[in-house]
Amino acid sequence: MATIKDVARLAGVGVGTASRVISGKGSFSPDAAARVGAAAQQLGFRPSAIARALSLRSTGTIGVFVPDFAGPFYGPLLHAIDTELRQHDRHMVAANGCGHEDPRQEALDGARFLIERECDGLIITSNALRDADFLALREQHPRVAVVNRDVKGMKNQCFTVDHRTAGRLAAQALAQQGHRRVAVISGPAAAGDNRLRLQGFFEQLEEAGVKQSSVLLEEGDFTGQSGWDAAARLLARKGIDKVTGLFCANDQMAMGALSCLHHAGISVPGDWSVVGYDDAEFAAYLSPRLTSVRIPIADMALNACRSLLNACYQTTLPVSQRFEPQLIARESVAQAHPARR
């Protein structure tokens, strides 16, 4: 394999001149650039990534931690980051929370893995980490961006949507269609963004005259299977015959719930109306097509990535921290049946 010394020797220039031409940094003549370029092409020379990182004190990589590579939420996040980095000749190193430890320790281990890989910046999304954990990570690695989470003391490094307002949109979708007997399939109680969306949902229902105590609630874990299981538990509960509306705290659980309701002979939206959350790509292709609250996860990830590109590589990309949730109305919500309302 050819080295920079081989290129310099063939081009008839010093190693320093050849290095400056290859890196594009420093001064060199057009003639030297032409000779070094021709020599590098003839020898099939490729610069060493390790040597380049040492000379520039940069690996050209951004580390990204997500709890899980599977599912429709983190995929768009990773795709948005990777696409943006490649446009600027940078790369992504990704880690997830797989393992047998508790989710918080898995997230800490994932972040440590990325720091040990000398990533120039870190993008982290995690409900399991505490605010103190994020602050401690920033002490170890100042160039950190947080997606889908507000961390006290890190406002300028957080890129998230107002989940409380998003929860209100879900409640409005049902209340405005006359639904007063409502059920909810929530995400994990420990997830901060889940708590916020439920808080907004119940606040909006209270304003429509529906007490939180009258709402039937079952908990899932954001998977389709848990949506089916939670819907099955709801159908076995007392008073379920009066329910006309269902809110699911993400679209995967809504997909599982829709399947369970169909299996039980409950028509959507004829008997029940169903609202999801996130507006995953598949929501538009379910039957019926799912009304959902759109969370701009890809946009949040893109802007977090741009903030690190600016901090790490002195780019001047536009960065926004304002992200608006939006209700996407489809066929899974209809007017509540007068007799049941």
Q: Could you characterize what this model shows?
A:
The chain has 341 residues and is of the alpha/beta class. The protein has three domains: 53 residues, 434 Repressor (Amino-terminal Domain) (Orthogonal Bundle), CATH 1.10.260.40; 129 residues, 3-Layer(aba) Sandwich (Rossmann fold); 133 residues, Rossmann fold (3-Layer(aba) Sandwich), CATH 3.40.50. The protein is 43% helix and 14% strand. The chain has twelve helices and eleven strands. It is elongated and about 90 Å long. It starts with a helix and ends in a 13-residue tail after the last strand. The model has no long low-confidence stretch (mean pLDDT 91).
Seen as an oligomer or otherwise, the chain set is single chain
As a whole number of angstroms, the C-alpha radius of gyration is 26 Å
Terminal-residue CA separation: 77 Å
Strand fraction band? 5-15%
Derived structural class:
alpha/beta
User: Helical residue percent?
Assistant: 40-55%
CATH class of the largest domain: Alpha Beta
What CATH calls the topology of the largest domain is Rossmann fold
List the helices and strands and how they pair.
Blueprint: H1 4-11, H2 15-23, H3 30-43, H4 49-56, E1 61-66, H5 74-87, E2 91-96, H6 103-116, E3 121-124, H7 131-140, E4 144-147, E5 158-159, H8 163-175, E6 182-186, H9 192-207, E7 216-219, H10 224-235, E8 245-248, H11 251-263, E9 273-278, E10 291-294, H12 297-313, E11 326-328
Parallel strand pairs: 1-2, 1-3, 3-4, 4-5, 6-7, 6-8, 8-9, 9-10
Antiparallel strand pairs: 10-11
